[in-house]
Design brief:
Protein name: Probable dual-specificity RNA methyltransferase RlmN
Strand order of the largest sheet: 1-2-3-4-7-8-9-10-11-12
Subcellular location: Cytoplasm
GO molecular function, one term: tRNA binding
Keywords: 4Fe-4S, Cytoplasm, Disulfide bond, Iron, Iron-sulfur, Metal-binding, Methyltransferase, rRNA processing, S-adenosyl-L-methionine, Transferase, tRNA processing
Family: Belongs to the radical SAM superfamily. RlmN family.
Number of strands: 12
Oligomer: single chain
Strand content: 15-25%
């Protein structure tokens, strides 16, 4: 195996890139008010516009009849500029899984997925256009990083799903987004400020935010240790998902190159610290790859490493790999997967195998954008 080069903690975006338009979801309630006053508009209108956006899920100015007709267009232009347009939508599972390819204002492409289950709906959102973490089995990682997304661009993916549910466009009747997982394109912790901003907007009570529970939000990371520690001190009880994929440094250096910067032990220590500070059980994400990381001895090693720190502090989520076309990486044999589960459970580690939704619609994030 060739030795991967260490990655910087935060990868710089290209210089001279224009920023996304400033949007209500980028701003705190007081900042929204100040912006309107600065533009010569009544500050109290900010709350009315926020009510339309977060509570009524309106995106047509004509629906905002409590705003004066003479100011309506200007208020919407200032606070609700268009952030993204849908390029393609693909559906699976009789319409209850919907994947959207979005074009951002500068032409960058990102993906989000709505997944409706009995009694709940989950939105999987992107936090970056592309990704700089360079994990070789990941479609997004192969394209490199284009740019970070803004807080509002992240929030808008969720609100677009919320509008589709509210308008009864998804089979199952009207509904609401209950869960948000930061598992789309990008490394959320490498765009920390915008991601935390989005979490705050999504959890702030309506009409200042969407008003969902922080416990319904999962933030994933490949293991940016300083950011995991920072998240533990935010006081927001989100679930931390650590994309581990290998229990030994030799293999993880190849699969997750940031491991050359932060070892398996350091990364698990940070995740355990998150658990002790927040009381929130950590999810260990592990993509099962045939003949690569699915050996029985690796299941034993993973269980031992987790149990060394404590019992019951993690839940292992095994992910049957959604292979990208032409890739040498492919999903594990079902018998090997079952043995992996058996060995983890034999050592008392709670384990599930993720539901593989959306394979027929290029379910692995980045596949649709790469094709486009």
């Amino acid at each position: 195996m060739s030795e991967p080069k260490p990655l910087p903690l935060v990868l710089a975006e290209p210089r001279g890139r224009k920023k996304p338009p400033r949007h209500l979801a980028d701003l705190t309630p007081s900042e929204r008010k100040d912006l309107l006053v600065e533009m010569g508009l009544p500050g109290f209108r900010a709350k009315q516009v926020a009510t339309h956006y977060f509570s009524r899920l309106a995106d047509d100015p004509e629906q905002m009849t409590d705003l004066p007709a003479a100011q309506r267009a200007e208020l919407v232009d200032v606070l609700l500029p268009e952030l993204m347009t849908p390029l393609r939508q693909l559906e699976a599972d009789k319409g209850t899984t919907r994947k959207t390819l979005w074009k951002l204002f500068d032409g960058a492409l990102v993906e989000s997925v709505l997944m409706r289950y009995p009694g709940r709906t989950t939105m999987c959102v992107s936090s970056q256009a592309g990704c700089g973490m360079a994990c070789p089995f990941c479609a997004t990682g192969q394209g490199g990083l284009q740019r970070n997304m803004s807080t509002a661009e992240i929030v808008e993916q969720v609100l677009a799903g919320a509008r589709a549910l509210d308008r009864d466009e998804i089979p199952g009747g009207t509904g609401r987004v209950n869960n948000v997982v930061f598992m789309g394109m990008g490394e959320p912790m490498a765009n920390y400020k915008a991601v935390i901003g989005a979490v705050r907007r999504l959890t702030e009570p309506a009409p200042d935010g969407y008003g969902m529970s922080a416990r319904g939000i999962t933030v994933s990371t490949v293991g940016l240790v300083p950011r995991i520690k920072q998240l533990a001190d935010e006081g927001i009880p989100v679930t931390l998902a650590l994309s581990l994929h290998a229990p030994d440094d030799e293999l993880r250096n190849e699969l997750v190159p940031i491991n050359t910067r932060f070892s398996v032990a350091e990364t698990l220590d940070a995740a355990y610290e998150y658990f002790t500070k927040t009381g929130r059980r950590v999810s260990i994400e592990y993509a099962m790859m045939r003949g690569i990381n699915d050996h029985a001895w690796r299941a034993d090693l993973l269980a031992d490493l987790l149990n060394e720190r404590a019992h019951g502090w993690v839940h292992v989520n095994l992910i049957p790999l959604n292979p990208t076309p032409g890739s040498k990486w492919t999903a594990s044999d079902p018998a090997d997967e079952r043995e992996f589960v058996r060995r983890l459970e034999a050592k008392g580690v709670a384990t599930t195998v993720r539901d593989t939704r959306g394979q027929e619609i290029d379910g692995a994030c980045g596949q649709l954008a790469a094709k486009e």
